[in-house]
Design the sequence.
């Protein structure tokens, strides 16, 4: 999966990302609010990354889905490698290994993103929420043909 920019409000991830662990991260204000079954979040990047601002509202369904990846959808929960630019602009790959692959389906009620709006045929795919998941990040090889 290509990740054009990794945004966070974690100073640690910004300082060490792409150096100590894979994935260059850039500064953003991140806000998450949960009201009943509603989950809302905004990401407001700083500087040159302003075009990657996102505002999302979803309704979370109660039932757990996918105690195994295949039951939920291979793209959502099986995608483990993200490819993004490193500090020099070359492609870098990071592998995400969650300790649990169980999720809840969500209904996307609102999705505002100038980046996504730039793709005229973009439509939200079936979406899922994974929570309270421990993740291990490791470097991965960039697939041949992308280097």
Sequence:
């Amino acid at each position: 999966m290509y990740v054009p920019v990794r945004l966070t409000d974690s100073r640690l991830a910004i300082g060490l990302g792409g150096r100590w662990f894979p994935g260059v991260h850039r500064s953003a204000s991140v806000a998450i609010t949960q009201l009943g079954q509603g989950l809302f979040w905004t990401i407001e990047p700083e500087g040159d990354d302003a075009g990657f601002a996102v505002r999302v509202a979803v309704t979370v369904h109660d039932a757990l889905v996918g105690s195994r990846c295949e039951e939920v959808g291979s793209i959502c929960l099986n995608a483990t490698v993200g490819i993004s630019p490193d500090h020099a602009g070359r492609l870098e790959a990071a592998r995400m290994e969650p300790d649990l692959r169980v999720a809840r389906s969500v209904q996307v009620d609102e999705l505002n993103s100038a980046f996504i709006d730039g793709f005229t045929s973009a439509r939200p795919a079936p979406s899922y929420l994974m929570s309270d998941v421990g993740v291990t990040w490791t470097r991965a090889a960039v697939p041949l043909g992308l280097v």
The chain has one domain: 6-118. The CA atoms of residues 97 and 136 lie 5 Å apart. Residues 67-75 have pLDDT under 50 and may be disordered.
